[in-house]
Amino acid sequence: MILQWLELSENALGKEHHQTLNSMSYLSATLIKQGKYWGSQKLYEETLKLQIRVLGEGHPDTCESIQGLGNVISQQGKYEEARRLHRAAFQATQGLPMPCKHSEVRGFTSGICREG
Question: Could you give the CA distance from residue 106 to residue 92 in angstroms, rounded to a whole number?
Answer without folding.
Answer: 9
